[in-house]
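Fold it.
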Amino acid sequence: MYNWSLVCFTLLTQSAIGLVWVRVLGRWFGWQVPSASPTWPMLLALALTGLGLSAALAHLAKPRLAPHALRNIAASWLSREVLLVQTFGGAVALLILLTLLDVPAGLAVLETAACFLGGAALFSMVKVYRLKTVPMWNSSATPLEFAGSALLLGGALGAVLSTLPPTHPHGWHPALVAAGIGMVLGLVLKLLAISPALTAEQAARAQTWYAPPGARLSTGQVLTLRMILNLAGLGLTLAAVGGSAPGWAWLWLCPALACLAAGEVLGRWRFYGTYGRVGL
């Protein structure tokens, strides 16, 4: 498998979905009018979606045949995933256009649709990997991990963007509150995913027809490294909001985002490294 193309596709797309969620929540919570809500977070979400789809092309032996992926929507979750991710990107693009044109009519409906389409795209990603022939993927850990990645990375991106000067004030404002909620929920989902992931690994090793490929890092080592990186990211986030000088919180949040992203890349690399089907 071309692991790194899939790592980039899933994490970039999930980050975009999470960013849209926290930005919409922040706007609703702060009662911002469309013209007062900056468009560059949504532009970043759209760019991440486009980069994710581009990375997915590297997974194909013949990228020029990519449009054929949409031919089996009725039966294939992979086809639905491709369609829903593109539809999500289209909804975000239309949302950006309405905001730039300062057209408030229907904005809340379109924001709701973008959030719903993001959730549907995330659900389709989960279904793609719930394969009985890959028992280490076919557990409740997969939806917990994917949803956790969306909220954690989207929240971290939202936190950085919401503190860039001179747009936002110092301290806990609505956009930063929404981003913080996303980060906390993402970390909670990551913790909840540990137990079913370990259970699935133990059950998989008991199957005579399945043998996960060897990895340089064990599951315990990966979990330990991810925990260290997540704690470092959380600590830097708290330092950014509570102790940094006004206007400089983003300098703490950028390394916090880097720590959290490194942990997610490590976890996703391990996820794809468990792919293996013997004798099938």
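The radius of gyration is 19 Å.
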